[in-house]
């Protein structure tokens, strides 16, 4: 499930403040679902920060650079390929997690293989991300799907 053109979070580097800003979610999800959603995003953000630190150290990147992280949740438990954790640097795919095989796969970024090798050694993060994708992501996708359908039906009446 992918939500386009919605700012999910804002990170303010000077204060290290992370604010989840997906207003549609906050306004339409039940409070417990919103709290779960916040916790879930926070977990992925934590691993993303670890990986970005490793990437910047491995590639000896100095100064500011742009990174992106995308998490995809499948609404079908029978679709392991529908789950994804992808990291990009300066708009180019760096690595993504192949959930089916449990390995990091290098992307098109010039130093992707070095990043892949570094992340593959971090078994704790790999297992934690896999567990979140396989165990929590599906429930979140279903909640979003149901809530979205309810919101659309209210809007069309």
TrEMBL record:
Domain of life of the native organism = Eukaryota
The MHC class I-like antigen recognition-like domain sits at 6-149
Q: Which InterPro entries match?
A: MHC_I-like_Ag-recog, MHC_I-like_Ag-recog_sf, MHC_I/II-like_Ag-recog
Keywords attached to this entry? Glycoprotein
Name of the protein this chain belongs to: MHC class I-like antigen recognition-like domain-containing protein
Q: Which organism is it from?
A: Aquarana catesbeiana (American bullfrog)
């Amino acid at each position: 499930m992918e939500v386009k053109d919605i700012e999910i979070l804002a990170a303010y580097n000077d204060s290290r403040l992370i604010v989840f800003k997906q207003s549609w979610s906050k306004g339409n999800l039940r409070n417990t679902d919103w709290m779960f959603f916040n916790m879930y995003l926070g977990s992925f953000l934590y691993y993303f920060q670890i990986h970005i630190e490793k990437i910047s150290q491995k590639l000896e990147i100095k100064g500011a650079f742009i990174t992106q992280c995308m998490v995809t949740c499948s609404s079908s438990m029978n679709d392991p390929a529908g789950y994804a954790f992808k990291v990009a640097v300066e708009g180019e795919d760096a690595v993504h997690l192949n959930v089916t095989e449990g390995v990091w796969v290098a992307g098109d970024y010039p130093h992707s293989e070095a990043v892949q090798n570094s992340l593959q050694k971090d078994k704790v993060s790999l297992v934690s991300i896999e567990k979140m994708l396989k165990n929590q992501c599906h429930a979140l996708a279903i909640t979003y799907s149901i809530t979205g359908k309810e919101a659309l039906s209210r809007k069309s009446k």
